[in-house]
Amino acid sequence: MTTPSPAGFRSWTAHLGLADGMREDFAMVISETPCTSSVVFTKSLFAGACVSLGRESLQRSHPRGVAILAKNANVATGAEGMKNAQEIRAIVARAGGVDPDEVVMASTGVIGVQYPMPTIRRSLADLGASTALDPEAVATAIMTTDTRPKVSVRMVGNAKILGVAKGVGMIEPDMATMLSFVFTDAQIAQTDLDRVFRATVERTYNSVSIDTDTSTSDTAAVFANGEAGPVELDAFADALTAVCTDLVKMIASDGEGASKLITVSVTGASSDRQARTIGKAIVNSPLVKTMVHGEDPNWGRILMAIGKCSNEPDIEPESVRVSFGDTVVYPEPSDGGQGANVDTEAVRRHLARETVEINVDLGAGRSAWTVYGCDLTDGYIRINADYTT
Fold it and tell me: How far is CA 308 from CA 111, 211, 362, 364, 377, in A?
C-alpha cells in the first residue's frame, strides 16, 4: 500500500555511487512553495560539513527541503569536504528550482572519506524529473545499515504529517537523532512550529539510544508548506509526536543486530531530567541489554542500573518499584528473600516478546519519561567490526 503524502512536495532519488551495487543512495524532497520549518542538529564537536552548512543557512533563510546522501558522512574532510558539500547543494538546488540556502544538506555513513565527486557530478547531471513525494523511495534511499525503511504518517484535520527516518547505530542523540525529516501540508506559524517541534524532539528523538554514541551527522527537521490550510495547534502537536514516536520505535527495533525493542517507562521522578536520566541508564546498560537478549530474568540488573546514578540523592531504594510488563520484581511480592518469590517464569515469558517493557516508579515525585532502545547481540559487534571492510 502506498503511503499518502502531503500536498505540494516533490521528491527525487538516485544512485550516486556511494552505496554498493546500484542501490539508490541519494534522496531529495522539496516543497513547491515556501515553508515554515524547524531544524535541529547534532552537538558533536566533530559535526560534519553538511551540518555546518545547514547552521549557516538557517541564519539567512527558512529551508523548504532536504537533500540526503547515504553511506558517506563527509565528516573530518576539511575545506575540501565543505567545498564539495556546497557544490552538491548548488547542483540539487538548481534541479529543485530553489535557492541553495533553502536546502538542508544531510549526509551519513563512513567518517573521514571524501565524496567521489566525479561520480556524483555525473549522476546528478542525470538526476531526472521529480515525482510526487514518494515516502518509501526516499526512506529506502537514505538507509545505511538499516534493514528496512522507516515511514510514518498521521492526519490532522485536512492535513497530512509524513515522517521518514534512517538510523540504527551510533545513536545517543544530543539534540535530535540520526536523520529524520517530517513533511506536512498543514499551515503552522514559524514560531509555533519551532516550539512544537523542539518539544517533540525532547520526548522522542532525544529519548532513544542504541549504543550511547552521538553521531557527527544527526539532523532532524520539519517542513510545513500550508497547502492544506490551518489546523488546531494542539492536535498538530499530538499528531507530530505520534509520527516521531513511531519513527523512534522503528529506529530502536532496527538497531544494529537488534532482536528486541526495549521501552523503559520511568514514573514517580522528582523531575523530567531525573526520569530520563534513569531511563537512559537502564536502556544503555550492556548488562541490561544482554539480559534482554538472552531472555534471562536477572532483574537485579535493573536495580544496578538505577543504583549507579549516584548523583540522584532523592531516590530511596525502599521507595522504588520495578516491573517487567505487569510482573513486579522489586520489591519482592513477599519477604522470601533472594528473589525467591519473584515469578521468574512470567519475567522470562515477557522477555521472549519482541517488545520488552521495563517499568520503574521511583517514588520521588510526579514526573515521568519513556526512553527507547534495543538488546545487544553478536550481530551488533559483527556489523561494526566490519563496517569499512
Answer: 33, 18, 14, 17, 23
